[in-house]
Amino acid sequence: MREISLKAVVVSSIFNFVLMVILIMVLAAIFASQYSATGGAPASETEVSVAFEASWLSMLALVAPVAAGYLAAAMAKRAAILHGALSSSLNVAWGVVCLIFLVPVQISSLLILAANPLLGVLGGYIWLRSYKR
Questions:
Q1: Positive or negative CA dihedral for 35, 40, 46, 51?
Q2: Average pLDDT, the chain
Q3: pLDDT tens digits, residue range 54-67?
Q4: Which residues lie closer than 8 Å to 125 by C-beta, 6 or more apart?
Q5: Smallest Cα–Cα separation from 109: which of 95, 121, 91?
Q6: DSSP symbol at 1
Q7: Is the pLDDT score of 87 beyond 60?
Q8: How many helices (H) and strands (E) does the chain have?
Q9: What is the pTM of this model?
Q10: Helix axes 6-36, 89-97, angle to 10 degrees
Q11: Fewest 10 Å CB contacts: which of 40, 72, 117, 120?
């Protein structure tokens, strides 16, 4: 427990959550503009939302946990893999709340939720490999 930097975990977890929300909003706006520009009848918001969630463009938001894992490891300067994994704690907690109360459970949602800590570990590992002691 002494190896865990609470400051690194809290700051990187908030960073992860905020960056992911921003990326989703920006990517969704780009997708919606491209989706409606393809011609044909105007699509409803629901159609665009479903298409965005099914697109590969939405997966680019998963850069956020990697960046947060890197940030957590860089701030803590120890136990990089552990801090990387913990950097997604806010995303995982919010994801569990959403799956319980807000959205129907889907396998893809569970996989994305499970991928958050693993991507945080990747960010911590990248920092560990690039850190010059």
A1: negative
A2: 84
A3: 777 778 888 999 99
A4: 69, 80, 81, 84
A5: 95
A6: -
A7: yes
A8: 6, 0
A9: 0.83
A10: 60
A11: 40
pLDDT in tens, 95-129: 888 888 877 777 777 888 889 999 999 999 999 99
pLDDT reported for residue 133: 62
Helix or strand (DSSP H, E) at 128: helix 107-130
Instruction: Identify the residue whose tokens are 């940030």.
Output: 71
Rounded CA separation 52/27 (Å): 9
User: What tokens does 25 get?
Assistant: 């909003």
CA distances from 48 to 80, 87, 120 (A): 39, 31, 29
Report which DSSP code applies to 61: G
- Location of structure tokens 């009848």: 41
Q: Which of 92, 74, 79 is nearest to 13 (CA)?
A: 92
Distance from the Cα of residue 56 to its chain's centroid: 14
**16 and 91 Cβ atoms separated by less than 8 Å:** yes
